[in-house]
Design a protein that fits this description.
Strand content: 15-25%
CATH superfamily of the largest domain: Periplasmic binding protein-like II
Strand order of the largest sheet: 4-5-6-3-7-15-8-16
Distance between the termini: 16 Å
Radius of gyration: 21 Å
Number of strands: 16
Structural class: alpha/beta
Number of domains: 2
């Protein structure tokens, strides 16, 4: 295997040049994740490094489990990789913008929102679709979206629905569905003339605590939190959010891989190698769900039982297919409709957004290396 990447100044935006691995300096690459199973590719890549290296020559060697790794290409060390758990929602792209991390795995919506505001953040790969759920208190005995809408309409007081962060993917989809159903909502708890009070519980880990503690009646959130609620009897999963009317979020992109724009150029060799093993890990997830579930449980502290409920609600893919671009277009339209874009991306179509917000060239180099 030729230890060379065909890079665009490291997948940055300038002319093409060959960057030999043998002459690339060793760098430190800091990778942030939110700590749930939508970012399973990172966990599988770390835990199955030896197997993956047999096919690509790229390997993550553990120095300190879940925290520090060495990244090798064909036996040559090219980077020290620090793995950090960062907050969800806008916290991951904020960490990228502040250069606290170089690469981050997180929600598509907050990444796009950060780019809209001019943050030095670039979307460098698809990662994950779906996996968002509507969960209610078990005693409500609600079994469908239609029953939930009926419950809200008949309630004498606003129904309290939790979400983990203001720019959470699940919140965007849920509020779009509320609008379609003709239901009014507000985050202002003093407003009593609305159908739904949207409650920021400030973190995915607080969704089930807030539900069982009576702070909220339901939540729009991602797995594995819904699966945890089901296994522990804390809540009931009513439906997957992708199924909600008007149906435009079917198989919606949920998470992506993003990078600090400057570091994408400066550390392109290491980033491309990382994308190579993440692509391999994604293929492994799709080939062996049971093993992936065990890996998820080990990294995030759930269980194989929880993960076998959670993982089937997700789809893992790093392919920037025509379908993915079409699904991203839906996201952009929804975020524009909800007034979430104020600046660089406001009113733009997906093709125009792609020229501003995406740089997928490192991904293409990684996939070409794997002959995808």
């Amino acid at each position: 295997m030729i230890a060379t990447f065909a890079l665009c100044a490291g997948c940055g935006k300038s002319s093409k040049q060959e960057v030999p691995i043998s002459t690339a300096p060793i760098t430190t690459l800091t990778v942030g994740h939110v700590g749930h199973d939508h970012h399973l590719a990172l966990f599988v890549a770390a835990d199955n490094a030896a197997q993956l290296a047999e096919n690509s020559g790229v390997a993550l060697r553990v120095v300190k489990d879940k925290k520090l790794y060495e990244l090798y290409d064909n036996g040559k060390k090219i980077a020290n990789v620090e793995v950090l758990k960062v907050g969800g929602g806008s916290k991951m792209p904020t960490s990228l913008a502040q250069a606290s991390i170089d690469v981050g795995l997180g929600g598509v919506a907050p990444v796009l929102a950060a780019i809209d505001k001019g943050a030095p953040v670039t979307l460098i790969s698809p990662l994950h679709n779906k996996g968002d759920m509507l969960v209610t208190k078990p005693e409500l005995n609600i079994k469908s979206w239609e029953e939930f809408v009926d419950y809200v309409k008949k309630s004498d007081i606003p129904v309290r629905v939790g979400y983990k962060s203001p720019m959470a993917v699940a919140k965007v989809i849920f509020e779009d569905a509320l609008s379609h159903a003709g239901l009014t909502f507000s985050g202002d708890m003093s407003k009593t003339d609305v159908d739904v009070h949207m409650v920021n519980v400030k973190g995915g880990g607080k969704l089930n605590i807030s539900l069982s503690g009576g702070l909220i009646d339901a939540y729009a959130g991602n797995n594995p939190f819904a699966a945890i609620a089901e296994v522990k009897g804390l809540g009931h999963s009513v439906c997957e959010l992708e199924s909600l009317p008007p149906g435009r979020f079917k198989n919606h992109p949920c998470c992506c891989i993003a990078a600090n724009s400057e570091m994408l150029v400066e550390k392109s060799v290491a980033i491309t190698a990382l994308l190579t093993v993440l692509q391999q890990a994604t293929d492994l997830i799709n080939a062996d769900t049971a093993s992936a579930a065990e890996c998820a449980g080990r990294w995030i502290g759930t269980s194989a039982k929880v993960e076998m409920k959670s993982l089937p609600t997700s789809s893992y893919s790093m392919d920037d297919s025509e379908k993915w671009h079409s699904e991203m277009s839906v996201w952009l339209n929804a975020m524009n409709d909800l007034g979430l874009f104020k600046d660089k991306l406001k009113g733009l179509k997906e093709k125009a957004v792609a020229s501003i917000a995406y740089d997928l060239r490192c991904l293409h180099v990684a996939q070409k290396r794997l002959e995808r």
